[in-house]
Amino acid sequence: MKISINWLREFINLTASPQELADKLTLSGLEVEGQEKFDQIPGGLEGLVVGEVLSVQKHPNADRLSLTQVDVGEAEPLPIVCGAPNVAEKQKVIVAKVGATLYPTKGDSFAIKKSKIRGEVSRGMICAEDEIGLGTQHDGIMVLDTQLPNGTPAADYFGLVSDQVLEIGLTPNRADAASHFGVARDLKALYHQPLTLPNTENFSVDNQNLPIEVVVENTEACPRYSGLTISGVAVQDSPDWLQARLRAIGLSPINNIVDATNYVLHGLGQPMHAFDADAITGGKVIVKTLPEGSTFTTLDEKERKLLAQDLMICNAEEGMCIAGVFGGIKSGVKASTQNIFLESAYFSPEYIRRTAQHHSLKTDASFRYERGTDPNITVYALKVAALLIKEIAGGQISSSIVDVYPNAIESFRVAVKYKNVDRLIGKQIDRGEITEILQQLEIEVVEENETSITVLVPPYRVDVQREADIIEEILRIHGYDQVVTADYLSADYIARFPEIDDRKLQLRLSEMLVGNGFYEMVTNSLTKPAYVQEPTAVSLYNPLSEDLNVMRQHLLFSGLEVIAHNINRQQKNLKFFEFGTTYRHQEDKYLEAKELVIFMTGLVQAESWMASAEPVSFHHLSSHIQIIFNRFGITGIVQEPLNDPFFSYGLQLTHQEKIVAKLGKIDTKTANLAEVKQPVFCAVVQWLVLLEKLRGTSTKERTVFQEISKFPEVRRDLSLVLDQEVTFREVEQVAKANGNNLVKRINVFDVYEGEQLVKGRKAYALSFILQDQHRTLTDKIIDKTMNRLMKQFEQELHAEIRQ
């Protein structure tokens, strides 16, 4: 949300700098995310001044150029070469001095430099209208009718005012601050300055020539509806000051009627809509819902099918506007419009939110209505808008204000105990200051005693309905920075800290992965519905967009999106990891699970003279998972073939029948959903299961230190021909079971599958590391052990020993 400081100063007298205001607002809960300068004309005519042509001579080397001397208020006049046919002595002109940057109406900007033009020095430029972005005329230079002294900034001559604009990251709960007036209310409490609101004392009804009847059939969806008519308006461009106000906050002016409603919307926070009164058939406005499936064409010329709950503004025959969301193509203000009906209403947030979401219509009006507006400002805003329209578009107010408000919306009544204020804030605030803060925030104190107060919160503060909310309001105005941390901290209870600190363990593992060349990523918990592969998805009732309306069931797809983002920027060798939460809905319960996901794709390491370009394989990923288990002393892991639609192949690692991890190659169809075209290997570790395993293991068991044996290792190699179905895990189990505790490690250093073997068979080249911790192994013991292993391989695995 953009806030113009010049506009803000219409509501409150502020002398503080923009940076100080930004700091104050941020500390009070309205975080200022950015700050920028706004100029009515690009560049703000900086470096351009009023000058006077003292002399004009023909250029000696060019027929169409003139040599001029121009007084710009400096000690010496400037020599300027000018090509305009209308330049003459004693003219007042606009001069761009050396160093100025011009932003023409058409074309790119350019800087003015000291130069020689056909051999003559030129130290500036006498400007035409289009050269400085003020219009399209280029017949000659601008000749001014002014008595301003030479050297006066051109911005002062044209009445241009620069502005500073604050970008506020408005949180969803602060609907009350979604306007300049709303922000000014906070500044009123922060600076103890009174507010100044637009004066409506001169509002009066000119005649009753254009009465419009208003009927509200659905008072639940529309608790209050106000309106009036204005006849004889002239639809045209808005005055410069109004266009500047809207452009400063990023809006494009449309016409004076629509701009006036936008001015009130962003000024006071009250959405408004102007109808062409001549399009209101039957002279009646009816607020109601239409039958399910009714069609309606909106201003963007799209035909939409309505829900039965969509609130509509109708005339006697048909719908004219989707209430609080979007206008209709037939009833909108056009260049030919002469009479208007002006609407100012309060709509139920639930109705507007549902309608805006269903039709994917996000407008400035719906943004405010679906969060909650002020039901008590509709008539005042109507008067402000009507007076502004009369000022800039002419016309007469041709009906009394119609105000349908059958059931007034009451203020929120909240009781607050002082002891809770002190406890939650962490210090005792003077009771008088508490009362003053609340009054400054327009929260009325209706009851007060030594221990508590009772307050009435105005209905536009939809986020302040509980005791804790009141305390938060007190604290943010008192100042979070005013709460000093004590030298000695205390707690209301003594916590029993577990032996396993999840955060420290996660940090250690993160550091280990980073040390192995991985980068940590953090992705959104919201994801696309296209990624939902199970009926357990958790959908949002009020999503921010159609592409982010489901809570993620897996970390897989968000990680693939990160990989696609990097590959599209020529970064193809990637190693990523993320700790994140997944969400599911099962049997009326919402379940969360924390996972660690690891991705590898591309080359193992960048190609160089020291290493060949080796692609990432499943075994590279598997080795990192094994390092994790070894690092934390996880033993007893069982490997099983992975059967998962997201993976082409891989392993499932379990412990005591609980899945600890899945790892393998991402299936091509899965990768294509995120537009990833190269092979990706992924491991998904169930973090909570891993922590549970760690908690069930003592510290001594988790970390084992052992002195290096003084007896040497011995290596023996063996080549086995096995059935394709036999896994390395089975070979390893047979070796460990029959190796008399002498087999310490087994490694596959070659695999062969080809024409020289019988179909369905493969060859493993294995190395066995044997060692005895108590003596040196003799050839006799080694040979006996290897013979026993070969015999068991033949019997249990039907292996063929290759000599």
Task: Let me know the average pLDDT.
Answer: 91
% residues in beta strands: 25-35%
Largest sheet: 7 strands, mixed
The gyration radius over C-alpha positions equals 38 Å
Query: What is the H level of CATH, i.e. the homologous superfamily of the largest domain?
Result: Bira Bifunctional Protein, Domain 2
Give the C-level CATH assignment of the largest domain. Answer: Alpha Beta
Q: Fraction of residues in helices?
A: 25-40%
The CATH architecture of the largest domain would be 2-Layer Sandwich
**What's the CATH topology label of the largest domain?**
BirA Bifunctional Protein, domain 2
Q: What is the total tally of β strands?
A: 41
Number of domains: 6
Q: What attributes characterize this protein structure?
A:
single chain; 803 residues; alpha+beta; OB fold (Dihydrolipoamide Acetyltransferase, E2P); Phenylalanyl-tRNA Synthetase, Chain B, domain 3; five-stranded antiparallel β-sheet; 28% strand
Question: What does it look like?
Answer:
- The chain is built from 20 helices and 41 strands.
- The model has no long low-confidence stretch (mean pLDDT 91).
- It has six domains: 2-40 and 162-191, Phenylalanyl-tRNA Synthetase, Chain B, domain 1 (2-Layer Sandwich), CATH 3.30.56; 42-158, OB fold (Dihydrolipoamide Acetyltransferase, E2P), CATH 2.40.50; 213-404, Phenylalanyl-tRNA Synthetase, Chain B, domain 3 (3-Layer(bba) Sandwich); 412-478, Phenylalanyl-tRNA Synthetase, Chain B, domain 1, CATH 3.30.56; 502-702, BirA Bifunctional Protein, domain 2 (2-Layer Sandwich), CATH 3.30.930; 714-802, Ferrodoxin-fold anticodon-binding domain (Alpha-Beta Plaits).
- A hairpin with a 5-residue loop joins strand 34 (638-641) and strand 35 (647-655).
- The radius of gyration is 38 Å and the shape is extended.
- The chain has 803 residues and is of the alpha+beta class.
- The strands form eleven sheets. It has a seven-stranded mixed β-sheet with strand order 28-32-33-37-36-35-34. It has a five-stranded antiparallel β-sheet with strand order 5-4-3-6-11. Strands 13-16-19-20-21 form a five-stranded mixed β-sheet.
